[in-house]
Amino acid sequence: MTITYSESSQKANLKKRWDRDDVSMKIIDFQTHKEKLSQREFAKDNGVPRTTLQNWLNRMNRIDADPSMVSFFESPAGVKFLHILIQALHFEFTKVGCASLRNISNFLELTQLSSFVASSYGTHQKISDEIDIMIGQFGDMEKARLSILMPEKRITLCEDETFHPQICLVAIEPDSNYIILERYEKNRSGDTWNQAVIEAIANLPVKVLQGTSDEGKGLIYHVTKGLNGHHSPDLFHVMYEISRGTGAPLSAAIRKAEKEHEKSEKTVHGALKSKEDFENLVKRPVGRHPDFDKRISICQKKEQEARASLDKTRGNRETVSKARKEISTAYHPYDSLTGARRDSASVSIQLKGCFN
Questions:
Q1: Which tens digits make up the pLDDT trace of 300-322?
Q2: Domain extents for the chain?
Q3: pTM reported for the whole predicted model
Q4: Is the pLDDT score of 76 beyond 70?
Q5: Which of the four CATH numbers 3.30.420.10, 3.40.50.300, 6.10.140.1670, 3.40.1110.10 does domain 150-233 have?
Q6: Contact, 30 vs 42, CB < 8 A?
Q7: Is the torsion defined by CA of 236, 242, 244, 248 positive or negative?
Q8: For 339, left (φ over 0), alpha (ψ -120 to 50), or beta?
């Protein structure tokens, strides 16, 4: 015996998977010649099992839709249109847009196209994965093609790590919004960043002059030592450091001023109450009467000073808050109102004013 039972069983159970385009062509061909050829003869001439042909025809008859729609969508032109439609839905809804695969499934159900094309989540998950692979392959091809034609350029990299849950290093060129690096790594050390970025720009005619990121030690080391560039913190971390450095002291000063003001108000209230009680006495004590008016005046003066101190501390916090917001406007290469490009001198003056 030359083959085993299991091998012969596998060969016997092997079924041909017919392409949707071929199926539509076979059906059209059969319907054209069905008056001349029987199902058995047509199946034999075209290499199609008769039961398979019967299943195709029965499936068409079971579709609950207008006959003209069935005729079109089961034709080669209709199948081609469905292919284009599904690809366009995935690309525009889930790759360019922010929709989900559930939205595509619901769209097919609502348009009743689910009678002609699968609308299950699993089916479209496979399609989405295939499109992801093709987009990546196309990106690699275009990167290799366009890098040859690209003139030498000095760039800035915006870098950060994301976690889902693996560590993923991401670097984007902000002027073009081009993702230069997007790679999973075991760690996020400066040396790992150096190797990943150097490999990503190896075939690109670019020179990295600046890196913008958070205050992570690995990223700072990577930019300043690995790329020999200038590290510029991102705006969020500038604001965070300012808030961390000023928030607690300003809040503490306000709380202290509030306590002093509350204490002075109680002192004024106590002095006024003492004068009122003394004046209401039926039999006043013998001797020199207290100078309540002078005492009240001194207490009121201290209360006014405490209120002024409280207003000043609150004003300081508002000043810092306003200046911090102005930094977000100043820390930008373009004017947010006119869109005009700003020079470094004007940006420097405005930033110094905010920090002062």
A1: 999 999 999 999 999 999 999 99
A2: 76-140, 150-233, 237-281+291-355
A3: 0.55
A4: yes
A5: 3.30.420.10
A6: yes
A7: negative
A8: left
